[in-house]
Amino acid sequence: MRFSAVLAVAALALMAYAVPSNAQMTVDKNRSYFSPDQQFGFGVNNSGLHIQYAMGPAFHIGLNLNLDFQSGNSTSETAYNFGPYAKFLFSGDVIKPYAMASVGVIQPNSGRFDYLKDGDTVTVALPKSEFRLYLALGGEHFFNQNVGVYGHVNLLDAKLSPSPSVVKAGLRGGVVGVEFFF
Hints:
Number of helices: 1
Helix content: under 10%
Largest sheet: 8 strands, antiparallel, barrel
Strand order of the largest sheet: 1-2-3-4-5-8-9-11
CATH topology: Porin
Distance between the termini: 62 Å
Number of domains: 1
């Protein structure tokens, strides 16, 4: 009886020694309670708005609905941008860095058309739609699971159609905005 009591005390001492008293739980910052998780939302930024779904705390998908007044081409004053995007958020504490890729059907020179008169025939020509790919890097701060502010710079703008295809790399403009999740 006395030996089993000593053995029990020794086992408790061994367990107390094996589990440190100052152990801290490690937390993946993307899994923190500040990141939206499986929530729908919308966002407003300096070039328009978007709707989105947070598939998890680190991956969002959405749809851009933009009206861009500075599309980067001196002959194009305005452009509509309609297309999907995907955003991957990396681990971070106060600001979570992210990478974003989006494709868009762009209608440049919106609100403008050309007309040609050939005898009695009048032909109206609208600007051709463009298919573009954008890559961006940025950061986002979430106040809670429902509100976040973000900003990114576009690093790649590739016009894939119509011909000729053009790829522009470098700082291609910035976007700042706020997102709301439900």
